Amino acid sequence: MIVRAGSFRFYLVWITMAQVSAQEEKEKTAALKDLLSRIDLDELMKKDEPALVFPQTLEEFEYAFNEHGQLRHTRTGEPFVFNYKEDLHRWNQKRYEALGEVIFTCAGFLTAAFCSLLIVDAEEDEPKSFFYLSEDALTNPDKLLVLIQGGGVVRAGQWARRLIINEDLDSGTQIPFINRAMKEGYGVMVLNPNENFVEVEKAPEAEQSGADSSDEPAEKRERREEREGKKKKEFYEKYRNPQKERETERIPIRENSTPEDHTLHVWDHFIFKSQAKKVFVVAHSYGGLSFVELMIQREDEVKSRVTAVAMTDSVHNVWHQEASRTIQDWLKEKCCNWVSSSEPLDTPLDAMLPDCPRRSAGTERHELTSWKSFQSIFKYFDKHLEEQTKPPTTRSANRVKHEDL
C-alpha cells in the first residue's frame, strides 16, 4: 500500500493530539476526585437537611380521610403533597413512607371489621406475623374469598399505597372487595404476604466483635472490610442523606420469609382446613405468582377446593415457574387475568403463555387493574357459581365461557 508523505504526517499529528487530549482528561478527573475527597459532605449538608423524624398518627400529619375516602389536609383541604420540602427528594420519600405506615397502622380500615390471627405457633420471643379474616372465614360452609396483594411495601388489605394516598380508599384498598363479598355471603381472608421479617437495631460494632480488631480472624476481617468498602461506594446516598440513621438487621419470620411461603402457610393451616366448599381467589401482580407457586406445591388440594381465580396484572410465568401441563390446563378453565391495557374493559387479549385467558382491565395503570375490574371479577365468580349448581350431566357440556363475562 502506498502512503503519501503528507497524509502520513497528518496521521501522526492526529494521534499525538488524541493522546494529549486523553492525558488532559485523566488529569482533570484526578483533580476532581482529589477535590471531592477533601469535602466533608456530612458537615456541608447536615445543617440543611431536617431530621428524619416523622409523626406517628394521621392527626399529627394533619391529614384525614373525608367522606369520599380521599386523603386531605385537615387545615387546607388539599390532597397530599409529596414535594413538601423542595430539592430534598430522599427526605420527602421518607416522609411519604412514614405516612404510608401510619395509614396502615392507625387508620383502622380493616381492624374494625376483622380480627388478626398469628399464623405461626411461635415462641414468645420469636418473630410473628398475621393476616386478617372475617368471623366466619373458617366456619362458612359455602363460600370463601381469599385476597392476595402484590409485592413491595403494600400491607394487608391494600392494593396500592400510591392510590390510597393520592386517589382514595376504594381504588387503593381491598375494602370494596371485602364489603361486597361479605354482603354476598362469602367468608373472607386477607393475606399479608409482604411482612416477611422484623427489623431490630444492631448492637454497636465493638459489642458485636467482642475483641480487638487486630485479633479478628482473616475471614471476618475481610467481611468487615467488604462492608466498609460498600459504605464508601454509596457516595450519592451519603450526599443526599448525611444524617446517620440507626443500623438494623432483618430477622426472617419462620415459614413466612417470602410471599410464596406465606401463601403456602396460610393455605395449609387455614384455607384448606376451612369448611367452605367453594374457594375463590383474587390475586394482584406478584400475588398471582404466589398462587401459581401454591398450585405447583399443592396441585391436588387446590383443584379440589378452588372454584375460580381472578388475577389482575399478574406477573406469574408458567414456564419460568415450571408449572405442569395439568396446571396450565386448569388455569385455562378456572382463571382469568385482567391486565393493564388501553382496550375497553373485558376486551379479550392475545394469550402470552399457555395458561389463563387475558382480558383488558380498562386501564393502562398497573396499580388500578384490581379496582377497574372489580365488577367484572364478581360477575366472573357468579358464572362459576352458576356452573357448579348445574346437574353433573349438563355441567361438562356447559363450561363457563370467558367470552360470556
Short summary of the structure?
With 405 residues, this protein is an alpha/beta fold. Helix content is 43%, strand content 15%.
Helices and strands in order:
Blueprint (H helix, E strand, L loop, with lengths): L4 H33 L3 H6 L11 H4 L1 E3 L5 E3 L15 H18 L8 E4 L11 E4 L9 E6 L12 H6 L2 H4 L2 H9 L2 E5 L6 E5 L3 H5 L8 H16 L1 H6 L7 E5 L6 H13 L6 E7 L1 H12 L1 H7 E7 L12 H10 E5 L8 E2 L8 E3 L8 H4 L1 H16 L2 H4 L10
Helix pairs in contact: 11-12, 12-13
Descriptive terms for the model:
Rossmann fold; 13 strands; alpha/beta; two-stranded antiparallel ribbon
Q: State the total count of DSSP E strands.
A: 13
- Residue windows where pLDDT falls under 50 for at least 5 positions: 12-16, 206-212, 235-242
Strand content: 5-15%
Mean of residue pLDDT values: 81
Structural class: alpha/beta
The order of strands across the largest sheet is 3-4-6-5-9-10-11-13-12
* Terminus-to-terminus distance: 76 Å
Number of helices: 17
* Proportion of helical residues: 40-55%
Main beta sheet? 9 strands, mixed
CATH superfamily of the largest domain: Alpha/Beta hydrolase fold, catalytic domain
What is the 3D shape? globular
CATH C-level class of the largest domain: Alpha Beta
